[in-house]
Amino acid sequence: MKHYLLVRIKTSKKTSLLLKLNRLNVDIKEVEYAKDYLKFKILASDLKKVKKYLMRFKVEILDETGIYKLKEELKKNNLIIVGIIFATIVFLILSNIIVKINIVHEDESLREIIGEALTEAGVTRLSFKKSYDEYEAIIESIKESYPDRIEWLEIDVEGMVLNIRVEERIINNYEPDYSTCHIVASKSGIVRSIRSEKGVSMVSINDYVTQGEILINGNISLNEIVKKSVCASGEVYAEVWYSVSASVPLTEEKRKDSGKMRYNFMVKNGSDEYVLLKSRVGEEKRVENVYLFSIFGFEFYLQKEYEVEVETINYTEEEALTKGIDLINEKLELKLDNFESIIEEKVLQNTTKDNNIYIDMFVAVTEQIGVKEYFDETRSDTSDEEYN
Amino acid sequence: MRIMKNIQNFLYDQDYYIDIFQNCLHVYYYLDLLSLSSTSIELKLKEFTLKIEGEDLVVSSMDKHEILIKGKIKNVRFDR
Question: Is the ipTM of this complex over 0.90?
Answer without folding.
Answer: no
